[in-house]
From TrEMBL, chain A:
Protein name: NADH-quinone oxidoreductase subunit N
Subunit structure: NDH-1 is composed of 14 different subunits. Subunits NuoA, H, J, K, L, M, N constitute the membrane sector of the complex.
UniProt enzyme class: translocase
GO cellular component, one term: endomembrane system
Protein's cellular compartments: Cell membrane; Endomembrane system; Membrane
Gene Ontology biological-process annotations: ATP synthesis coupled electron transport
TrEMBL record, chain B:
Catalytic EC class: oxidoreductase
Known EC number: 1.6.5.11
Biological process annotations from GO: ATP synthesis coupled electron transport; electron transport coupled proton transport
Protein family according to the UniProt entry: Belongs to the complex I subunit 4 family.
Signal peptide extent: none
One Pfam family named in its UniProt record: Proton_antipo_M
Native organism: Streptomyces montanisoli
Protein's recorded name: NADH-quinone oxidoreductase subunit M
PANTHER family according to UniProt: NADH-UBIQUINONE OXIDOREDUCTASE CHAIN 4
An example Gene Ontology CC term for this record: endomembrane system
NCBIfam families: NDH_I_M, PRK05846.1-4
Lineage: Bacteria, Bacillati, Actinomycetota, Actinomycetes, Kitasatosporales
Amino acid sequence: MSAPAVHSLWTTTAADSIGTIPSPHIEYGQISPVLIVAGAAMVGVLFEAFVPRKARYYAQVILAVLGLAAAFAAVVALAADGYGSASKAHIAAEGAVAVDGPALFLQGTILLTAVVAIFTFAERRLDPAAGSHRVDSFAAQGAAMPGSDAEKAAVRAGFTTTEVFPLSLFAVAGMLVFPAANDLLTLFVALEVLSLPLYLLCALARRKRLISQEAAVKYFLLGAFSSAFLLFGVALLYGYSGSVTYARIAEVVDGTVQNVDPALAGTMGNDALLLIGAALVIMGLLFKVGAVPFHMWTPDVYQGAPTPVTGFMAAATKVAAFGALLRLLYVVLPGLTWDWRPVMWGVAIITMIGGAIVAITQTDIKRLLAYSSIAHAGFILAGVIAASPNGISSVLFYLAAYSFVTVGAFAVVTLVRDAGGEATHLSKWAGLGRRSPLVAAVFAVFLLAFAGIPLTSGFAGKFAVFKAAAAGGAVPLVIIGVISSAIAAFFYIRVIVLMFFSEPRPDGPTVAVPSPLTMVTIGVGVAVVLVFGIAPQYFLDLAGQAGTFAR
Amino acid sequence: MSFPYLTVTFALPAAGAIVTAAVPAARRTAAKWTALVFSLATLVMAAIVIVRFDPGGGQFQLAESHAWIKDFGVSYDLGVDGIGVALLALTALLIPFVILAGWHDADPLEEARPNRRWRPTQGFFALILAVEAMVVLSFEATDVFLFYLLFEAMLIPMYFLIGGFGDRAHSGGDEAAATQRSYAAVKFLLYNLVGGLIMLAAVIGVYVVAGTFSLTDIAHLRAAGDLSMSTSTGRWLFLGFFFAFAVKAPLWPVHTWLPSAMGESTAPVAVLLTAVVDKVGTFAMLRYCLQLFPEASKWATPVILVLALISIVYGALLAVGQRDIKRLIAYASISHFGFIIMGIFAMTSQGQSGATLYMVNHGISTAALMLVAGFLISRRGSRLISDYGGVQKVAPVLAGTFLIGGLATLSLPGLSPFVSEFLVLVGTFSRYPVIGIIATIGIVLAALYVLVLYQRTMTGPVKATVQGMSDLKVREVVVVAPLIALLIFLGVYPKPLTDIVNPAVHQTMSQVDRTDPHPQLEASR
């Protein structure tokens, strides 16, 4: 081979091929909710640097709430523009993000959940003031070792970790992208953006800091594993299809693909890659929703994390992760339905039964709620498995109904306190109904909603997913669902018995009177329980209209 | 649009519950009167419903229909047939007596008031009214889903009534009483919740099969032959429904929650439970099991009749053996529920008319007996039969009313339960003679447990514990006298009730596609 010929293997004449590289076409308007939240988070970081310490708390709270509210307004504007309907839904930002019904519905849910969760973050009336400074649920200074002099000094100086607000905004930004991600890399990036701030937030409890840090380490390690699984799955799926975009992978799965890249033709369509890759990606998502057998982190993390963070995590992360799971199963893998369905059946069954049974033995209210959230993940999976438009909208509805109630329930947990901070051991809740009838009644309402008693949001949600599942042919799943509901009812009822029918203990906890912030959070929870329970039609319509994915 | 009679009948107690709950903590008496006034207003409304109801008219009268949750195929459909009207009337009638009988049951002890917001009295009466509202609406609902919602939701206020309020004095002390009470309440709730959740699966199944929850629509579909329910599907769904109703009714072997729940709760709550709430179970067997699944109902009849028979004899035998007055009445009720279920599934018009009458009469007679027993227990703070003796010498009015309540329970001719028990037995005998004969054992045993109870507590030498016991007070007489009057009136002249019930029973029979065997006596006319 002559020298020029060899040379031409790796060079080429410039004039021919370097044209103008087209700049990516980004529809800023359509992804504005994400941009607003991320922008607010960055402004929050600047606030940390430049706003005086005294004014920081107020500046951060106002910024966070305004940012979330503005993002919600953007979501509503997009929905009003018709992006939620099947005709106008489309893929934005060069195929990275979908703007469609499920994405907008879930983004709206996440944003509103985040607003009420931020209210509990900002609550400063529960913990006794350190000197003249009122404090919230977060450590005075995350970097100060628990029990060290540095910590004492930080507490004395009245430091508060206002960084939690930008951190939670970053997490929200990730959560907004997660259910809308339309290619696997965006999915992964969104997962990391939502997870990393959460790991940090988990470690920042003011009381019981060691447990909190332990929870964060556990969450981080297991979360890192699951991220690695997901990333590995992404790589295998790329090997299978030669692309990371959902639409392209779906085409390859369906066998309708055109213009195959010759370099990838060899591995393309290799079913082993597809099955293993899909399984790994689904595993990563199931970890985030806390489905059995990927649930091990849930009780420890829910227990150790500061309770406002637990509420936020339990509600918003679950919404985002189920959104991503739905999109993956319904957009990328519909051609694989017959393969994933039996597996998901198994996961849903052990999640429902496992969550309900293990919850019975719990003695800590936060762990109990953690296992209850696992059982709920199982119910939601039953709707996911329906593999029908009804299945999608029922899951959307369930998530909306569930998230506010969860945040509300954890907000109630923050109120019941004794000298050591929150009194989360169940025995301390004995007789709460006598001491503080109102708080106990509100918590009972939340528990009844979790138990799925008719005329509460929990029942409407459960009915929606079970109906979709039964119509989709998953009758045994529905039967197991109602049986595990009955088991679950037992431990919810047990807490109610404890609160109302037991004598109060002399050394029992007191109930702190919260500021209007937490009251709003709890009030929203109660309102959602009643409205979704008694007159859910509007929200069912909304979820029904939002039930079509763009492809 | 015509006046929404049925909605108002349900909304009155519901509003009453809210208003009563909102009465300030210190105004306990005001709360009681509020509750009583609302329950009386409901009674008036129920009377108006009876007057507006035309026994010869269509199946579901005074119907109302509004869209509710379109996505679930659920609408707010109301309507009453003769059976519904009769039970509606029973409920509206009994609640004022329950409230009056429980006048002092929820007064907080002064030393046991943890804070000023603690107001059990308001809660007690509000919960009673809440139960009434849900029971009333469940008798009116003609939408399977709406009925299911209420069937489940009424457990919650009932649960708090059982677990939260017990008899003042208890032999084992307050601590033990609270433990037993919360055990009874949890047992009640779990049994019924499991039943209800299994029914939920069947309710979803009905929707998947029929695509609607409306009873009328389903009947139309069936008449037009458009209901594609396979035999086995129908049977499974029937079992799902029947299980829930059997727990609620309760039928042997899922009856064990009733004695503990009735034993631990106060007498008015026990009356509310057995005379009102449990009737929803037997009512639903007639309304839902038979009308939705006629084929499966016929298929399951032999087994159900045997279970009913066991309930009758077993309940009566255990009642004979009880040492606790309230548990005795509870087991007697299980025996009576056996009769009701037997009457329903005998599938004859006498049987079903008898069963419906039985529901009403059992409600009145149990209320009379249980409330007097409650008055007796509140005087000595003991539920044990052996703690009493010779009461009739010190409190003759109490003893006399107790005797009449007891005689009604054993179906003495001349008192209204006799009519219904007779009809049930005749109706069963005409199709299943052997079962009818065995069931009469229940009557014999009823005489035994009632008379022995009376003999041990009321006759004989006056025991020391009973010395100086006061007789019935005016409030208590006001509670008992009308019930006894009603027992006698309906015993002598049951026609007003049978006129309302019979057409509805024939309607049900024709939907189940059953006709009476043999040329027959004209039932109860």
